[in-house]
Amino acid sequence: MTVYGIGLGPGDAELVTVKGKRILESVEVVYSPGRLSRSVALEHVPEEKIGDLDFPMTRDPETLRSAWKEAAAEIASVADDTDVAFVTLGDPNVYSTFGHLKRTLAAFHPEIELTVIPGVSAMTAFTTALDVEIESGTGLALREAANGAAPTGPDRMVLFKVTDAETTHRKLTEAGYTVQFGRRLFMEQGETIITDDPSEVDERDYYTLAYAEREGIEREVATAQFETESEEELA
Ligand SMILES: C[S@@+](CC[C@H](N)C(=O)[O-])C[C@H]1O[C@@H](n2cnc3c(N)ncnc32)[C@H](O)[C@@H]1O
Question: Which of 160, 168, 204 best tests ligand 1's pocket when mutated (most atoms within 8 Å of CB)?
Fold first, then answer.
């Protein structure tokens, strides 16, 4: 049978894809790695469908490996008889816990078929919330920026896992970037913060992103000409 890795989107239950929802409703068991992904899944399936798995909050590779080995064994044994889903916030292939499961299943349970259903990643949820357009001819890089890290290089970056906004902001500003932060985007109403002031997001919250853009980058947008023409016509 199949294990489906389903991306749930950034948190709003209406941003789950139609396909993701259909599969969630069709499988017997839905495993979730955290409280938030569980609460989104519960908007689409009853509590009895949620499977029981334990995930340690650690970075220790040995502990992680054995926890994922156990989780994969449990999922594989249930998937012997029936289809199951493993949900993640955002997209399953973007900085996600699903990667651990995918690798562990491939190594220890190669007979299990795995199908990934993409989801709306925080990356595009953030650019939408900020109204940043990735125009033709430009690029956008994804990076991680935990514990005050401030990667540089690309003209435009979305930084995941921002935990020390003040330090990340200071370093990026010194390196010539303008920075905006997004917190709890498309989650509970009233929880979302979008700001360029790091003191507004200085309290640590796992669901924080930053968008960094190199100051003074040139933009050549094919349709920008319309504005100029119509302004001239109006003058
Ligand atoms: C383990 S990664 C998971 C990313 C996810 N797979 C995706 O595609 O969006 C967790 C990080 O994603 C970011 N994130 C995910 N959802 C978010 C949201 N709704 N608002 C703000 N940040 C979010 C945060 O930076 C958080 O630390």
Answer: 160
- Determine whether the shortest distance from the Cβ of 72 to ligand 1 is under 6 A: no
pTM for this predicted structure: 0.91
Q: Is the Cα dihedral 100, 56, 95, 33 positive or negative?
A: positive
The pLDDT tens digits of the residues spanning 123-137 come to 999 999 999 999 888
pLDDT band at 50 (very low <50, low <70, confident <90, very high): very high
Q: Decide whether any atom of ligand 1 lies within 6 Å of the 170 Cβ.
A: no
Domains of the chain (ranges; CATH) run: 2-117 (3.40.1010.10), 122-214 (3.30.950.10)
Rounded distance between C-alpha atoms, residue 172 and residue 174, angstroms: 5
Q: What is the pLDDT of residues 185-233, one digit of tens each?
A: 999 777 899 999 999 999 999 999 999 999 988 877 777 666 655 556 6
Where are the extended beta strands (E) located within the chain?
2-7, 29-31, 84-88, 113-117, 141-144, 156-160, 177-183, 193-195, 208-214
Backbone angles phi, psi at 181, to 5 degrees: -115, 150
Q: Whose CA is nearest to atom 23 of ligand 1?
A: 207
| Distance (Å) from CA 123 to ligand 1 centroid | 8
User: Which of 119, 98, 117, 127 lies closest to 185 in space, CA to CA?
Assistant: 127
